[in-house]
Amino acid sequence: MTADIAGRGVCTAVLPLPLRSGDISFYAAKLWFSAIILQLSLSVLVWAAVRKGGKWLWLFPAAILLHALVDGVTVILQKSVNLVVLELIILVMAFGMAAIVFFVSKNLDKEKAADEE
Predict the structure, then answer these.
(1) What is the pTM of this model?
(2) Count: domains in the chain
(3) Is-contact 47 63, C-beta < 8 A?
C-alpha cells in the first residue's frame, strides 16, 4: 500500500480505490477546495453569531440551514448528474456562501464602527 501511495499526492492517497484515476483525483481536489471554502464560511457565520449575539444570533440557525441545503443538493444530485457537473454546482454554492460571509462581515464591521463612535 505504501508503494502505491508514494508520490501520488494527498488526493489519490486518501480517495477510495475506485476513484484513483488521474482525472478523478483532479476533480476531487476541486471538490475538497469547495468543501474547505464551505466549511470556513459556515464557521465564520457561527463565530459571528456567538461573538456578536443579540440581533446576530440568527446567523447560527442560518449556518445550519445553509449546510443542510448544500448537503441536500449534493445527495439529491449525485445520482442524476455527472461528477464534474456536481462539483461545479458545489463550487458555485461555495463561492455563494463566501459572498454571504463577506456581506455579513462587512455589516459586522459597520456596526462595530458605529458602536465605537
Answers:
(1) 0.64
(2) 1
(3) no
